[in-house]
Amino acid sequence: MSINQLNVDSLFDSSLVAAQQPQWPADELASAVKELKSYPPLVFAGECDDLRSHIAQAAEGKAFWLQGGDCAETFASATADSIRDRIKTILQMAAILQYYSSMPVIKVGRMAGQFAKPRSSDSETRGEVTLPAYRGDAVNDLAFTPEARRPDPQRLVRVYNTSAATLNLVRAFTQGGFADLRKVHDWNKGFVKDNPYAARYEAMATEIGRALDFMKSAGVDPDAFKTVEFFSSHEALILEYEKALTRIDSRTGNPYDVSGHFIWIGERTRQLDGAHVEFASKVRNPIGVKLGPKSTVDDALRLIDKLDPNREPGRLTFITRMGAGKIREALPRLIDGVTKSGAKVLWVCDPMHGNTFESSTGYKTRQFEDVMDEVKGFFEVHKALGTHPGGVHIELTGDDVTECLGGGAKISAEDLASRYETACDPRLNHTQSLELAFLVAEMLRDR
Prior knowledge:
The protein has 447 residues and is an alpha/beta fold. It is built from 13 helices and 14 strands.
């Protein structure tokens, strides 16, 4: 074991309780962790630093954060077509937001690492059979059998390999010409033709094309139009995986979690005396924390003291997940309390997780109108307080699934069964994602 690895291992307090961890077979886990420690970084420390500087700009009101992707990635969905369509959807949303707001958009995927999910129960019962809960492909399989539900540490190695392949393709798409803004029309090809927002998108794309043609005719053809920065993110849930992929940066001597550029702590794992917060406090990545409707100002301030004691610009992002019916009541006190403390964080709205319910047909779903109402509430609160609504965090897919109700396509409870494909929580489909982007863009423009 290298000196650097010994330094990493000594950073973390192994006596702290880590919530939401699987019951791993100890010997198999040790073998998988040893293998992961020998692998190269998935991302680079300098890229994490670049993202932190962009977040600092967004916290100052000079940029907007767009984070989107699967609720829980699966190994089966890590195909070229699926990855391309998720990227394409995020690029389209970013183009809409940037066109209407004239503000830089930070593009972040919930991908290349989002393979694990917290659960409300350790087990699942069907009839008379009780098995371990499905915790994402990083841990076990969705199939309801003893073999499939057994936590398998070798899946962590597969997470690494699948994430590496995904990032390789992401970099090819975003740096190899696919993301060229001059191809903004092409991003809309291949999707369903009756998309109610397709015509509006095409009109916007035409205007962007004209502006770019004008600039080219004037002798201006910036390379910035040809590629985009695209960052990866995931919930830092399985701590054995995150610790195994923590490295000492050769430039600075600081530790970075090189499993992704941006990692966040969930609502179920943000205990101040827990292992997740302690882990995040030790690595130099930009960090996010989910805050629900029961979060207090004291919770937020103590998290800031723990995770950002030096009040470093771009270090900390609060991702609020309140629910449409609670955000206007719960969010103001948090923002006001943090603002008065002098701390500078980026405020991001997750309008998905607080609006989940079971449909009349038995599917876990969300109502698109509730999602949009929470975003509207987020903007209203910030406007009233004179603060910046810094971004949105969306579970989405590039496919035309039927998982969330409503939207321009008017998906009904009866429609859910036709293309309900998520392994965990319901996602906005491509049409709903574009619709949300247009609505958010209008609020940004009018803020």
